[in-house]
Amino acid sequence: MGRVATARRWARHSGIRPVAEVTGSWLATRFAPGWVRRNTAPALHDFVSCGGPLAGSAQVFLTRLGWAAAEIEPLTCEYEDVARRLAERYEATDLAFPARFGVEAETGFFVYAATRLLTPQVVVETGIADGRSSFFFLSALERNGQGTLHSFDIDPRAGGLIGDHDRWRRTIVDRAEPEAAFIAALRELGGVDFFFHDSDHRYLGQMVEYENTWPLMLPDGLFASDDADVSRAFIDFCRARERRPCFLFDNRKITGALRT
Ligand SMILES: C[S@@+](CC[C@H](N)C(=O)[O-])C[C@H]1O[C@@H](n2cnc3c(N)ncnc32)[C@H](O)[C@@H]1O
Fold it and tell me: Which residue spans of the chain are classified as CATH 3.40.50.150?
């Protein structure tokens, strides 16, 4: 079933009509046709009905995503060293973004451990800020000895914690039309093993990224989104595909993920 047909089916089910039909929003029409703009946050009930109980730790989240506890456990020691090195970077760096922009503790371990366990060739993250999540991705890729992180942001100051890294491709997209630049760059990559959204958390910003990245996801990959609690986009996206994601409830935010 095509994307628009899926959106129409979902819209019939939810009683809300697709935005392209209702408002003609240029963003939805161009990049996520058929999707309705819904900026309300989901309720706890939505997470549970869509994905089951929320995981309270990265370890539980990773086991629900299919990895064995015995594979995850040894990574906690590695991660302590990574976190120590990151703390040193923070000391030595003039930060350009508020600390609250960075991924939280359990999400940071999830990013590191999932990258170690998946051994991806192509990782895509949107939203760099100072580079906290980028540091976890790159530390894991370094340890894997393979793979490249492609990170996208609209702010040229992004990535101060990283500087240069031979496994890192940082792209600063035009903030006037970031979606077009992101989609063009994505298509150049071909396939994606691990996708992590952490950029524009408005409904259409999230949906545009999900809709355009999903068709490029490779088998056995990982499709994840930080701030799945800020708009209903991740839940709507999974429901439209009849997929049951897993959710991690970190200190104050919810990360969602699906194996592909
Ligand atoms: C929550 S922060 C990212 C935090 C980062 N992942 C970390 O762990 O430190 C969000 C970032 O997304 C960027 N951003 C906002 N809208 C964007 C867009 N449409 N495309 C790419 N980046 C965007 C902002 O400039 C900001 O740096």
Answer: 43-259
116-132 as b/e, with b when 16 or more CB fall inside 10 Å? bbbebbbbbbbbbbbbb
pLDDT in tens, 147-189: 999 999 999 999 999 989 999 999 999 999 999 999 999 999 9
Pick the residue whose CA is nearest to atom 20 on ligand 1.
Answer: 153
Ligand 1 centroid–CA 128 distance in Å is 5
What pLDDT sits at residue 67? 98
Q: What is the DSSP string of 175-238?
A: TTSHHHHHHHHHHHH--EEEEEE-S--SHHHHHHHHHHHGGGEEEEEEEEES-TTTSSHHHHHH
CATH 1.10.287.610 given to domain 43-259 = no
In the DSSP assignment, the letter for residue 35 is P
Q: Pick the residue whose CA is nearest to atom 16 on ligand 1.
A: 200
Distances (CA, A) of 57 to 107, 109, 172: 9, 9, 32
Ligand 1 center to 107 CA (angstroms): 15
